[in-house]
Design a protein that fits this description.
The chain has 17 helices and 19 strands. By secondary structure, it is of the alpha+beta class. It has three domains: about 150 residues, Periplasmic binding protein-like II (D-Maltodextrin-Binding Protein, domain 2), CATH 3.40.190.10; about 130 residues, Dipeptide-binding Protein, Domain 1 (Dipeptide-binding Protein, domain 1), CATH 3.90.76; about 210 residues, Dipeptide-binding Protein, Domain 3 (Dipeptide-binding Protein, domain 3, Roll), CATH 3.10.105. The longest helix has 18 residues. About 55% of the residues are buried. Belongs to the bacterial solute-binding protein 5 family. It is found in: Periplasm.
C-alpha cells in the first residue's frame, strides 16, 4: 500500500542494510549535508515548514510518533503502549517514563498538552496546526472559543487520552517534525536559539549559514543509542559543492541531483554505495488565483498543464530522476487512481482553452522559485518557451531557499515552484486543499471547491478504510481536473554514502531525513571521523 523500494534500491542499500547483522561501532563523527537551503531559517521547528530545518529536528527532537522506514508506517515513539477504542476515535498513550529532555526535565503529559496548545493557537500561525487538527477541540481552542483542547485529557503524569474528530490513525499526523514535543518549562524564544528536545543528540552550536553541531545525549531513552558521538549538519545547497566534498571524503552522505546521479551510476568507485527510493513528494507550480485573475479560471490552469512538455523536461533536465505526476497524490498512495493519466502535451488544446476562457491574447505572471536544479528556477526557465508558444509570458522570481516557506505561507506570490510532501497519509495530504485549511497551514493556493470539500469531509467521517480511500481517490481526481497547480513530477530520491557508513534507512517520506541514532561508522572511516 505504501512506497516500496525498487530492486536497485534494495541492492544499493549495501553496507547500510548490513548494520543490523553487525555489531555497531560506538563513537565517531558523522558529517551530514543539509542540501535544501543556504541556511537554517530557524531552529524552532514549530515555526518552519521547510525540510531543511527538519534535518536538525531528527537529531534534537521527537514527536509522539515516528516513521518506520522499513515497514512504511507510523509507530508510537514516546509511548511504551497505546490503547485504542473499538471505534478508533480514542487513543490512550502511556508515555515512556525514561524519556528526558536535554535540560533534565522528565517527559510528562503536560509537555504534550503544552506543545499541542501552542500549535493549535491560531495567533501563532504555525505549520503544525494542520496536523493536530485531527484532535477534537483544536479548532475551537485555536479560535479562542475554549481555554483547553477538548480532545486532550490528562489521566496522570504519564497517561494521555486523545479523542479524535473522526476514526483513524493519528500516527500519520503526529509523527510530523512540526509537532515535536517541547518541554513546558523551557522558554519558547530560546527554542530558536538553543533548542531543547527529547532526541538522541543535544544542541552544541549553530554557525549561521554553515552548520549545526549536535552531540550525544547520554540520557536518551533508547538503551545503547546513539552510536555516534557527534553529528555535523552542514549547509551545502550546491550540488557541485556536495559532489566535491563527497569525492574528497569530507562528508559521509550526499543527496544527488540529476547530473550527479548519472555520473555516480557510471563511476565504479561510487555506484555500489547509492541508496534510492521513490519519495512521497510532488514537484509543482502553485497558482495564486487572487493575485492573477486569469489563474482563477480552471480552463487557464488546465491550459498551462497541457502546454508544458513535462516528460521532455524530466528527461533532459531532471535526467530521469523523477516520475511524471498525474495529480497531487503520488502513484504509491493508497488513494491514487491507477487508471488516471497525466495531462498530455497538447499546445493546441491549451490554445483552445485559453481562447474559450477569454485569454486568446495571453497574459503574464511571475513564478517565485529557488535555485534548486530539480524544482526551481532552471525548471521555470525550461517552461518559458513552451508557455510562450500558447501566449503566456512567465517570469522567474528568484528567492533564497530558506525564505520560500515563509513567503508562500504568507501568500506573497503570483505563483511558486516547490516540492511538497504528498504522503504517506492521503487524508492528511488532501487537507491542504480543503477550504477550511488556512493558507499559513498548507492551503497555499487558497483552493476552495464545494465538491472537493464534500468528498473530503465525507472521507474524514468514514470509518471504513476502503470506503475512505475511494472518497479520497475521487477527491484527488477532482484536483487533477481543477488543476490548482502545474503537476510536474514525483521525486525519485537518491543519496550516496561512504563505504564506512552503516544504518541508513530507505525513508520514502524524505530520504535525506535519517534516524541519526541508528547510524554508525566502522573502522575504515578517516581518522577525522573516529
Amino acid at each position: 500500500m505504501m512506497r516500496s523500494l525498487s530492486l536497485a534500491a534494495l541492492l544499493a542499500l549495501g553496507t547500510a542494510a548490513t548494520a543490523f547483522a553487525e555489531t555497531p561501532r560506538k563513537g565517531g563523527t558523522f558529517n551530514f549535508t543539509a542540501p535544501y537551503g543556504s541556511a537554517f531559517s530557524t531552529l524552532d521547528i514549530h515555526s518552519s515548514p521547510n525540510i531543511q530545518e527538519h534535518f536538525v529536528t531528527y537529531a534534537i527532537h521527537r514527536s509522539l510518533y515516528s516513521w518506520d522506514s522499513y515497514n512504511n508506517k507510523p509507530v508510537p515513539e514516546l509511548a511504551e503502549s497505546v490503547d485504542i477504542s473499538d471505534d478508533r476515535s480514542v487513543y490512550t498513550f502511556h508515555l515512556k517514563k525514561n524519556a528526558v529532555f536535554h535540560n533534565g526535565k522528565p517527559l510528562t503529559v503536560d509537555d504534550v498538552i503544552f506543545t499541542y496548545k501552542r500549535l493549535a493557537d491560531a495567533k501563532n500561525a504555525l505549520p503544525g496546526a494542520s496536523y493536530i487538527n485531527i484532535i477534537k477541540g483544536v479548532d475551537a481552542f485555536g479560535k479562542g472559543e475554549a481555554t483547553e483542547i477538548e480532545g486532550l485529557k490528562k489521566i496522570d503524569d504519564h497517561t494521555l487520552e486523545v479523542t479524535l474528530n473522526a476514526a483513524g490513525n493519528p500516527g500519520f499526523n503526529l509523527m510530523e517534525s512540526t509537532t515535536s514535543i517541547y518541554p513546558s518549562d523551557y522558554p519558547l524564544d530560546q527554542q530558536a536559539i538553543k533548542p531543547v528536545g527529547l532526541g538522541a543528540f543535544q544542541f552544541k552550536e549553530h554557525v549561521p549559514g554553515s552548520q549545526v553541531v549536535v552531540e550525544r545525549f547520554d540520557n536518551y531513552y533508547e538503551e545503547g543509542k546513539p552510536y555516534l558521538d557527534r553529528v555535523n549538519i552542514i549547509v551545502m545547497p550546491e550540488g557541485s559543492a556536495r559532489d566535491v566534498a563527497f569525492r574528497n571524503k569530507e562528508v559521509d552522505v550526499s543527496v544527488l541531483g540529476p547530473v550527479q546521479y548519472q555520473a555516480y551510476q557510471q563511476d565504479p568507485a561510487l555506484k555500489d554505495h547509492i541508496l534510492e527510493v521513490a519519495e512521497t513528494f510532488t514537484r509543482n507550480v502553485g497558482f495564486n488565483q487572487t493575485a492573477v485573475p486569469a489563474l482563477a479560471d480552471k480552463r487557464v490552469r488546465q491550459a498551462i498543464n497541457y502546454a508544458i512538455n513535462s516528460d521532455l523536461i524530466i528527461e533532459r533536465l531532471v535526467k530521469g530522476k523523477a516520475v511524471r505526476a498525474v495529480s497531487w497524490l503520488p502513484a504509491g498512495s493508497p488513494a491514487f487512481d491507477d487508471t488516471a493519466q497525466p495531462y498530455a502535451f497538447d499546445p493546441e488544446k491549451a490554445k483552445a482553452l485559453l481562447k474559450e476562457a477569454g485569454f486568446e491574447n495571453g497574459f503574464e505572471f511571475e513564478v517565485t522559485a529557488t535555485p534548486n536544479e530539480s524544482w526551481g528556477v532552471p525548471i521555470i526557465e525550461a517552461i518559458l518557451p513552451m508557455l510562450k508558444q500558447v501566449g503566456i509570458t512567465v517570469k522567474p522570481k528568484p528567492i533564497e531557499s530558506a525564505a520560500l516557506g515563509s513567503t508562500v505561507s504568507a501568500g506573497d506570490f503570483q505563483a511558486y515552484m516547490w516540492s511538497n510532501l504528498t504522503g504517506p497519509d492521503p487524508l492528511t495530504v488532501l487537507r491542504c486543499f480543503w477550504s477550511q485549511t488556512a493558507q499559513s497551514a498548507c492551503n497555499y493556493t487558497n483552493f476552495s471547491n464545494a465538491e472537493f470539500d464534500k468528498l473530503y469531509e465525507a472521507a474524514r467521517a468514514e470509518a471504513d478504510e476502503a470506503k475512505q480511500m475511494d472518497l479520497l481517490k475521487q477527491a484527488n481526481n477532482l484536483l487533477q481536473e481543477e488543476a490548482p497547480v502545474w503537476f510536474f513530477n514525483y521525486n525519485k530520491a537518491v543519496m550516496a554514502y561512504q563505504p564506512w557508513v552503516h544504518g541508513l534507512a530507505p525513508n520514502a517520506t524524505e530520504l535525506a531525513l535519517q534516524d541519526y541514532d541508528s547510524i554508525w561508522i566502522d573502522d575504515s572511516a578517516p581518522a577525522s571521523r573516529k
